[in-house]
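Example 3.2
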Amino acid sequence: MEKLPDLKQLSNQAKEALIVELWQEIQKLTAALAAREEAKPETTPSKTSKNSSTPPSKGFKPNIKPSKTEGSKRQRSVGRAGGGRELHPHPDQVIIAQLKSCPQCGEKVTVATQKLQAVYEKIELPPIKPIITRIERYGGHCACCQTDYVAPVPLGMEPGSPFGSSIQSLITYLRYTHAISYERMSGILASVFGLKISEGAIANLLGKVKTSLDDRISQILQRLRQAKLICSDETSARVNGQNQWEWVFQNQDICLHVIRPSRGTGVINEVLGEHRPQVWVSDLFSAQKNHPAAQWQVCLAHQLRDCQYAIDAGDKIFAPAMKMLLLRAFVIHRRRDKMDETRLDRYRKNLQERLTRILNLAPHQPDGIRLRKRYGELIDNLFLFLEDAAIPPTNNSSEQAIRMSTIFRRVTNCFRSEWGRDLFAAVRSVVNTGKRQGLTAYQAIQQALSIHGSLFSPS
Protein backbone atom coordinates (compact mmCIF):
# COMPACT_ATOMS: atom_id res chain seq x y z
CA MET A 1 0.00 0.00 0.00
CA GLU A 2 1.74 3.16 -1.20
CA LYS A 3 -1.04 5.60 -0.26
CA LEU A 4 -3.72 5.51 2.42
CA PRO A 5 -7.17 5.31 0.73
CA ASP A 6 -9.97 7.74 1.53
CA LEU A 7 -11.52 6.19 4.61
CA LYS A 8 -14.84 7.99 4.02
CA GLN A 9 -15.28 6.10 0.77
CA LEU A 10 -14.63 2.68 2.34
CA SER A 11 -17.29 0.41 3.69
CA ASN A 12 -17.12 -0.99 7.19
CA GLN A 13 -16.03 -4.35 5.83
CA ALA A 14 -13.20 -2.70 3.79
CA LYS A 15 -12.06 -0.73 6.85
CA GLU A 16 -11.85 -3.90 8.93
CA ALA A 17 -9.76 -5.58 6.24
CA LEU A 18 -7.43 -2.56 6.14
CA ILE A 19 -6.97 -2.66 9.93
CA VAL A 20 -6.11 -6.38 9.82
CA GLU A 21 -3.58 -5.77 7.03
CA LEU A 22 -1.90 -2.91 8.93
CA TRP A 23 -1.81 -4.95 12.15
CA GLN A 24 -0.09 -7.84 10.38
CA GLU A 25 2.48 -5.45 8.89
CA ILE A 26 3.22 -4.00 12.35
CA GLN A 27 3.76 -7.52 13.73
CA LYS A 28 6.24 -8.31 10.94
CA LEU A 29 8.20 -5.10 11.59
CA THR A 30 8.22 -5.70 15.36
CA ALA A 31 9.54 -9.23 14.90
CA ALA A 32 12.22 -8.04 12.49
CA LEU A 33 13.34 -5.32 14.94
CA ALA A 34 13.52 -7.82 17.80
CA ALA A 35 15.60 -10.21 15.70
CA ARG A 36 17.97 -7.40 14.79
CA GLU A 37 18.42 -6.44 18.45
CA GLU A 38 19.17 -10.04 19.41
CA ALA A 39 21.70 -10.35 16.60
CA LYS A 40 23.62 -7.29 17.80
CA PRO A 41 26.88 -8.16 19.59
CA GLU A 42 26.92 -7.17 23.27
CA THR A 43 28.80 -3.93 23.80
CA THR A 44 30.69 -3.33 27.00
CA PRO A 45 30.64 0.14 28.53
CA SER A 46 33.78 2.24 28.53
CA LYS A 47 35.78 2.07 31.74
CA THR A 48 36.11 5.43 33.49
CA SER A 49 37.17 6.64 36.92
CA LYS A 50 33.53 6.36 38.03
CA ASN A 51 33.02 2.68 37.18
CA SER A 52 36.54 1.23 37.43
CA SER A 53 40.01 1.85 38.86
CA THR A 54 40.95 3.96 35.84
CA PRO A 55 42.55 7.19 37.18
CA PRO A 56 40.68 10.46 36.48
CA SER A 57 43.71 11.71 34.49
CA LYS A 58 42.94 9.15 31.76
CA GLY A 59 39.29 10.10 31.44
CA PHE A 60 37.82 12.47 28.86
CA LYS A 61 37.30 15.93 30.29
CA PRO A 62 34.62 18.11 28.66
CA ASN A 63 35.24 21.79 28.17
CA ILE A 64 34.09 23.99 31.03
CA LYS A 65 32.41 27.24 30.13
CA PRO A 66 33.94 30.18 32.02
CA SER A 67 31.61 31.89 34.43
CA LYS A 68 30.37 35.32 33.36
CA THR A 69 31.03 36.72 36.82
CA GLU A 70 34.43 35.08 37.29
CA GLY A 71 36.44 38.05 36.03
CA SER A 72 34.45 40.64 37.97
CA LYS A 73 34.74 38.64 41.19
CA ARG A 74 38.49 38.41 40.76
CA GLN A 75 38.77 42.13 40.18
CA ARG A 76 36.66 43.01 43.21
CA SER A 77 38.78 40.80 45.48
CA VAL A 78 41.98 42.76 44.72
CA GLY A 79 42.43 45.46 47.32
CA ARG A 80 39.07 44.77 48.93
CA ALA A 81 38.90 45.18 52.69
CA GLY A 82 39.41 41.80 54.29
CA GLY A 83 40.79 40.24 51.09
CA GLY A 84 44.24 38.90 50.33
CA ARG A 85 46.60 36.89 52.51
CA GLU A 86 46.58 37.14 56.30
CA LEU A 87 49.10 39.40 57.97
CA HIS A 88 51.99 37.68 59.68
CA PRO A 89 51.64 37.76 63.50
CA HIS A 90 55.37 38.43 64.05
CA PRO A 91 56.88 40.56 61.24
CA ASP A 92 60.66 41.03 61.21
CA GLN A 93 60.30 44.79 60.96
CA VAL A 94 57.50 47.37 60.93
CA ILE A 95 57.54 50.64 58.98
CA ILE A 96 55.24 53.32 60.38
CA ALA A 97 54.41 56.02 57.83
CA GLN A 98 53.15 59.24 59.49
CA LEU A 99 53.10 62.85 58.39
CA LYS A 100 54.45 65.93 60.16
CA SER A 101 52.75 68.40 57.83
CA CYS A 102 49.90 68.48 55.32
CA PRO A 103 51.17 67.51 51.85
CA GLN A 104 48.79 70.08 50.27
CA CYS A 105 49.29 73.28 52.26
CA GLY A 106 52.20 72.51 54.56
CA GLU A 107 50.24 72.98 57.79
CA LYS A 108 51.71 71.04 60.73
CA VAL A 109 49.76 67.94 61.78
CA THR A 110 50.06 65.88 64.93
CA VAL A 111 50.15 62.11 65.31
CA ALA A 112 46.92 62.21 67.34
CA THR A 113 44.97 63.63 64.39
CA GLN A 114 46.02 60.83 62.02
CA LYS A 115 44.13 57.55 61.62
CA LEU A 116 45.42 54.26 60.28
CA GLN A 117 44.47 54.05 56.60
CA ALA A 118 46.04 50.79 55.43
CA VAL A 119 48.11 47.86 56.65
CA TYR A 120 49.91 45.59 54.23
CA GLU A 121 53.13 43.62 53.90
CA LYS A 122 56.07 43.29 51.56
CA ILE A 123 57.85 39.94 51.60
CA GLU A 124 61.37 39.21 50.40
CA LEU A 125 63.79 36.34 50.71
CA PRO A 126 67.19 36.96 52.31
CA PRO A 127 70.31 36.35 50.22
CA ILE A 128 70.83 32.58 50.03
CA LYS A 129 74.36 31.28 50.28
CA PRO A 130 75.98 28.20 51.81
CA ILE A 131 77.61 28.40 55.24
CA ILE A 132 81.08 26.88 54.95
CA THR A 133 82.87 25.65 58.05
CA ARG A 134 86.52 24.70 57.74
CA ILE A 135 87.83 22.16 60.24
CA GLU A 136 91.52 22.27 61.10
CA ARG A 137 92.24 19.14 63.02
CA TYR A 138 95.52 18.81 64.88
CA GLY A 139 97.28 15.77 66.27
CA GLY A 140 100.70 14.48 67.15
CA HIS A 141 102.76 11.80 68.83
CA CYS A 142 102.78 11.35 72.62
CA ALA A 143 106.29 11.28 74.02
CA CYS A 144 105.11 9.45 77.15
CA CYS A 145 103.09 6.51 75.80
CA GLN A 146 104.51 6.65 72.28
CA THR A 147 101.07 6.67 70.60
CA ASP A 148 99.64 8.94 67.93
CA TYR A 149 96.67 11.15 68.76
CA VAL A 150 94.22 13.34 66.85
CA ALA A 151 91.99 16.05 68.34
CA PRO A 152 88.27 15.16 68.40
CA VAL A 153 85.83 17.22 66.35
CA PRO A 154 82.22 18.24 67.12
CA LEU A 155 79.44 15.78 66.32
CA GLY A 156 78.52 16.00 62.65
CA MET A 157 81.92 17.46 61.67
CA GLU A 158 83.67 14.15 61.05
CA PRO A 159 85.71 13.62 57.87
CA GLY A 160 83.84 12.46 54.79
CA SER A 161 81.37 14.18 52.49
CA PRO A 162 81.57 17.99 52.78
CA PHE A 163 77.78 18.30 52.43
CA GLY A 164 75.91 18.36 55.72
CA SER A 165 72.42 17.18 56.70
CA SER A 166 70.70 20.39 55.56
CA ILE A 167 71.98 19.90 52.00
CA GLN A 168 71.17 16.18 52.15
CA SER A 169 67.61 17.01 53.22
CA LEU A 170 67.14 19.59 50.47
CA ILE A 171 68.47 17.34 47.69
CA THR A 172 66.42 14.37 48.92
CA TYR A 173 63.31 16.55 49.10
CA LEU A 174 63.75 17.98 45.60
CA ARG A 175 64.54 14.60 44.09
CA TYR A 176 61.91 12.39 45.67
CA THR A 177 59.08 14.84 46.30
CA HIS A 178 59.37 16.96 43.13
CA ALA A 179 61.06 14.38 40.84
CA ILE A 180 63.82 16.82 39.80
CA SER A 181 66.61 15.25 37.75
CA TYR A 182 70.27 15.36 38.81
CA GLU A 183 71.10 17.75 35.98
CA ARG A 184 68.37 20.25 36.82
CA MET A 185 69.09 19.95 40.53
CA SER A 186 72.74 20.76 39.98
CA GLY A 187 71.65 23.89 38.11
CA ILE A 188 69.15 24.92 40.81
CA LEU A 189 71.70 24.55 43.59
CA ALA A 190 74.26 26.61 41.67
CA SER A 191 71.82 29.35 40.55
CA VAL A 192 69.64 29.74 43.63
CA PHE A 193 71.88 28.66 46.51
CA GLY A 194 75.31 29.44 45.14
CA LEU A 195 76.36 25.84 45.76
CA LYS A 196 78.32 24.06 43.05
CA ILE A 197 77.75 20.32 43.19
CA SER A 198 78.10 17.89 40.29
CA GLU A 199 75.64 15.19 39.28
CA GLY A 200 78.08 12.53 40.45
CA ALA A 201 78.36 14.21 43.85
CA ILE A 202 74.56 14.26 44.09
CA ALA A 203 74.46 10.51 43.42
CA ASN A 204 77.14 9.88 46.09
CA LEU A 205 75.25 12.08 48.55
CA LEU A 206 72.01 10.16 47.99
CA GLY A 207 73.90 6.91 48.56
CA LYS A 208 74.88 8.24 51.98
CA VAL A 209 71.27 9.29 52.61
CA LYS A 210 70.12 5.71 52.00
CA THR A 211 72.48 4.44 54.70
CA SER A 212 71.32 7.18 57.09
CA LEU A 213 67.66 6.21 56.63
CA ASP A 214 68.16 2.52 57.45
CA ASP A 215 67.56 3.06 61.19
CA ARG A 216 64.39 5.09 60.51
CA ILE A 217 62.99 2.37 58.27
CA SER A 218 63.77 -0.21 60.95
CA GLN A 219 61.75 1.88 63.42
CA ILE A 220 58.80 2.09 61.02
CA LEU A 221 58.97 -1.65 60.32
CA GLN A 222 59.08 -2.43 64.03
CA ARG A 223 55.94 -0.40 64.64
CA LEU A 224 54.21 -1.96 61.64
CA ARG A 225 54.86 -5.40 63.10
CA GLN A 226 53.00 -4.32 66.23
CA ALA A 227 50.01 -2.76 64.44
CA LYS A 228 46.50 -4.14 64.95
CA LEU A 229 45.21 -2.56 61.72
CA ILE A 230 47.05 -2.58 58.39
CA CYS A 231 45.85 -1.18 55.06
CA SER A 232 47.71 -2.32 51.96
CA ASP A 233 47.90 -1.69 48.22
CA GLU A 234 50.40 -2.05 45.38
CA THR A 235 51.29 -0.39 42.08
CA SER A 236 53.70 -1.14 39.28
CA ALA A 237 57.31 0.08 39.25
CA ARG A 238 60.13 -0.11 36.72
CA VAL A 239 63.63 -1.14 37.85
CA ASN A 240 66.50 -1.71 35.42
CA GLY A 241 64.02 -2.10 32.58
CA GLN A 242 62.09 -4.81 34.47
CA ASN A 243 58.56 -4.70 35.89
CA GLN A 244 58.41 -4.75 39.67
CA TRP A 245 55.81 -3.78 42.27
CA GLU A 246 55.71 -1.10 44.92
CA TRP A 247 53.81 -2.19 48.02
CA VAL A 248 52.50 0.08 50.74
CA PHE A 249 51.55 -1.03 54.27
CA GLN A 250 50.05 1.72 56.38
CA ASN A 251 47.60 2.88 59.01
CA GLN A 252 46.88 6.20 60.71
CA ASP A 253 50.32 6.26 62.43
CA ILE A 254 52.88 4.72 60.07
CA CYS A 255 53.50 3.98 56.41
CA LEU A 256 56.03 1.57 54.90
CA HIS A 257 56.90 1.30 51.20
CA VAL A 258 58.83 -1.59 49.69
CA ILE A 259 59.56 -2.37 46.03
CA ARG A 260 59.95 -6.01 45.06
CA PRO A 261 60.00 -8.08 41.85
CA SER A 262 56.94 -10.02 43.06
CA ARG A 263 53.27 -9.13 43.43
CA GLY A 264 52.60 -12.28 45.42
CA THR A 265 51.78 -13.02 49.04
CA GLY A 266 55.46 -13.66 49.75
CA VAL A 267 56.05 -9.90 49.97
CA ILE A 268 53.45 -9.61 52.75
CA ASN A 269 55.06 -12.48 54.63
CA GLU A 270 58.53 -10.97 54.20
CA VAL A 271 57.44 -7.58 55.57
CA LEU A 272 55.30 -8.78 58.48
CA GLY A 273 57.33 -11.81 59.50
CA GLU A 274 55.48 -13.63 62.26
CA HIS A 275 53.16 -10.69 63.02
CA ARG A 276 49.43 -11.25 62.53
CA PRO A 277 47.33 -8.06 62.64
CA GLN A 278 43.71 -8.14 63.70
CA VAL A 279 42.29 -6.29 60.69
CA TRP A 280 43.39 -6.03 57.05
CA VAL A 281 41.96 -3.43 54.63
CA SER A 282 42.55 -3.86 50.90
CA ASP A 283 41.05 -4.43 47.48
CA LEU A 284 40.23 -7.85 46.02
CA PHE A 285 43.60 -8.63 44.46
CA SER A 286 44.47 -12.27 45.11
CA ALA A 287 47.64 -11.57 47.15
CA GLN A 288 45.73 -9.12 49.35
CA LYS A 289 42.95 -11.67 49.86
CA ASN A 290 45.56 -14.06 51.28
CA HIS A 291 46.44 -11.62 54.07
CA PRO A 292 47.49 -12.94 57.48
CA ALA A 293 44.97 -10.89 59.52
CA ALA A 294 42.09 -12.33 61.52
CA GLN A 295 39.52 -10.07 59.81
CA TRP A 296 39.33 -8.41 56.42
CA GLN A 297 37.55 -5.21 55.37
CA VAL A 298 37.04 -5.02 51.62
CA CYS A 299 37.50 -1.57 50.06
CA LEU A 300 33.97 -0.33 49.35
CA ALA A 301 35.17 2.41 46.99
CA HIS A 302 36.22 -0.31 44.55
CA GLN A 303 32.86 -2.05 45.01
CA LEU A 304 30.91 1.11 44.26
CA ARG A 305 32.79 1.51 40.99
CA ASP A 306 32.22 -2.14 40.08
CA CYS A 307 28.50 -1.77 40.76
CA GLN A 308 28.39 1.32 38.57
CA TYR A 309 30.13 -0.58 35.77
CA ALA A 310 27.51 -3.36 36.00
CA ILE A 311 24.76 -0.73 35.85
CA ASP A 312 26.37 0.84 32.77
CA ALA A 313 26.61 -2.64 31.22
CA GLY A 314 22.85 -3.16 31.61
CA ASP A 315 22.22 -4.84 34.95
CA LYS A 316 18.99 -3.40 36.34
CA ILE A 317 18.32 -5.95 39.06
CA PHE A 318 21.30 -6.58 41.36
CA ALA A 319 23.90 -3.79 40.90
CA PRO A 320 21.52 -0.81 41.48
CA ALA A 321 20.23 -2.32 44.74
CA MET A 322 23.75 -3.20 45.89
CA LYS A 323 25.04 0.27 45.09
CA MET A 324 22.28 1.89 47.15
CA LEU A 325 23.09 -0.43 50.07
CA LEU A 326 26.80 0.51 49.96
CA LEU A 327 25.95 4.22 49.84
CA ARG A 328 23.68 3.80 52.85
CA ALA A 329 26.55 2.14 54.74
CA PHE A 330 28.75 5.17 53.97
CA VAL A 331 26.07 7.52 55.32
CA ILE A 332 25.81 5.53 58.55
CA HIS A 333 29.60 5.60 58.89
CA ARG A 334 29.72 9.40 58.52
CA ARG A 335 26.99 9.89 61.12
CA ARG A 336 28.11 7.27 63.62
CA ASP A 337 29.59 9.88 66.00
CA LYS A 338 26.07 11.23 66.54
CA MET A 339 24.52 7.82 67.25
CA ASP A 340 24.34 5.81 70.44
CA GLU A 341 25.31 2.15 70.36
CA THR A 342 21.69 0.94 70.36
CA ARG A 343 20.79 2.92 67.26
CA LEU A 344 24.00 1.96 65.50
CA ASP A 345 23.36 -1.72 66.24
CA ARG A 346 19.88 -1.39 64.77
CA TYR A 347 21.34 0.10 61.59
CA ARG A 348 23.91 -2.69 61.34
CA LYS A 349 21.22 -5.38 61.59
CA ASN A 350 19.12 -3.56 59.01
CA LEU A 351 22.05 -3.50 56.58
CA GLN A 352 22.60 -7.24 56.98
CA GLU A 353 18.89 -7.93 56.41
CA ARG A 354 18.90 -5.82 53.26
CA LEU A 355 22.07 -7.52 52.06
CA THR A 356 20.42 -10.92 52.51
CA ARG A 357 17.39 -9.81 50.46
CA ILE A 358 19.60 -8.39 47.71
CA LEU A 359 21.62 -11.60 47.51
CA ASN A 360 18.33 -13.45 46.90
CA LEU A 361 17.78 -11.47 43.69
CA ALA A 362 18.28 -13.28 40.41
CA PRO A 363 20.07 -11.03 37.89
CA HIS A 364 20.36 -12.27 34.31
CA GLN A 365 23.01 -9.82 33.07
CA PRO A 366 26.55 -11.34 33.28
CA ASP A 367 28.07 -8.50 35.36
CA GLY A 368 25.17 -8.63 37.80
CA ILE A 369 25.57 -12.41 38.13
CA ARG A 370 29.31 -11.99 38.73
CA LEU A 371 28.75 -9.38 41.48
CA ARG A 372 26.06 -11.47 43.17
CA LYS A 373 28.46 -14.41 43.37
CA ARG A 374 31.26 -12.15 44.70
CA TYR A 375 29.22 -10.60 47.51
CA GLY A 376 27.80 -13.97 48.48
CA GLU A 377 31.37 -14.96 49.33
CA LEU A 378 32.21 -11.59 50.99
CA ILE A 379 29.12 -11.25 53.16
CA ASP A 380 31.24 -10.99 56.34
CA ASN A 381 33.79 -8.57 54.86
CA LEU A 382 31.64 -5.69 53.63
CA PHE A 383 30.52 -3.86 56.78
CA LEU A 384 33.24 -4.68 59.29
CA PHE A 385 33.98 -0.94 59.60
CA LEU A 386 30.64 -0.41 61.33
CA GLU A 387 31.78 -2.70 64.14
CA ASP A 388 34.87 -0.61 64.95
CA ALA A 389 35.29 3.12 64.25
CA ALA A 390 39.05 2.65 63.78
CA ILE A 391 38.48 0.56 60.65
CA PRO A 392 38.11 2.61 57.45
CA PRO A 393 35.46 1.58 54.89
CA THR A 394 37.83 2.15 51.96
CA ASN A 395 41.47 1.71 51.07
CA ASN A 396 41.75 5.29 49.83
CA SER A 397 44.53 6.13 52.29
CA SER A 398 46.75 3.45 50.71
CA GLU A 399 45.99 4.71 47.20
CA GLN A 400 46.84 8.25 48.30
CA ALA A 401 50.12 7.00 49.80
CA ILE A 402 51.28 5.55 46.45
CA ARG A 403 49.97 8.40 44.29
CA MET A 404 53.32 10.21 44.34
CA SER A 405 54.98 6.96 43.30
CA THR A 406 52.84 6.88 40.16
CA ILE A 407 53.75 10.47 39.36
CA PHE A 408 57.45 9.79 39.96
CA ARG A 409 57.30 6.77 37.66
CA ARG A 410 55.81 8.80 34.83
CA VAL A 411 58.22 11.71 35.21
CA THR A 412 61.45 9.75 35.63
CA ASN A 413 60.65 6.40 33.98
CA CYS A 414 61.62 4.97 37.37
CA PHE A 415 64.88 3.44 38.57
CA ARG A 416 68.15 2.33 36.99
CA SER A 417 69.48 0.54 40.09
CA GLU A 418 68.22 -1.40 43.07
CA TRP A 419 69.77 1.02 45.57
CA GLY A 420 67.84 3.86 43.89
CA ARG A 421 64.69 1.77 44.13
CA ASP A 422 65.24 1.09 47.83
CA LEU A 423 66.14 4.71 48.56
CA PHE A 424 62.92 5.93 46.94
CA ALA A 425 60.89 3.46 49.01
CA ALA A 426 62.70 4.59 52.17
CA VAL A 427 62.08 8.29 51.46
CA ARG A 428 58.38 7.71 50.72
CA SER A 429 58.12 5.72 53.96
CA VAL A 430 59.67 8.61 55.89
CA VAL A 431 57.57 11.28 54.16
CA ASN A 432 54.23 9.46 54.56
CA THR A 433 54.96 8.43 58.14
CA GLY A 434 55.93 12.04 58.92
CA LYS A 435 52.69 13.23 57.34
CA ARG A 436 50.77 11.05 59.78
CA GLN A 437 52.71 12.70 62.61
CA GLY A 438 51.80 16.22 61.41
CA LEU A 439 55.06 16.94 59.54
CA THR A 440 55.51 18.30 56.04
CA ALA A 441 57.54 16.27 53.57
CA TYR A 442 60.59 18.50 54.06
CA GLN A 443 60.29 18.44 57.85
CA ALA A 444 60.03 14.64 57.86
CA ILE A 445 63.18 14.29 55.73
CA GLN A 446 65.03 16.81 57.91
CA GLN A 447 64.15 14.97 61.10
CA ALA A 448 64.99 11.58 59.62
CA LEU A 449 68.46 12.78 58.59
CA SER A 450 69.10 14.71 61.80
CA ILE A 451 71.38 13.07 64.33
CA HIS A 452 68.96 13.62 67.20
CA GLY A 453 65.71 13.84 65.20
CA SER A 454 62.81 11.39 65.32
CA LEU A 455 59.68 10.86 63.23
CA PHE A 456 57.69 9.84 66.28
CA SER A 457 56.68 11.87 69.30
CA PRO A 458 58.08 10.54 72.58
CA SER A 459 55.55 8.21 74.19
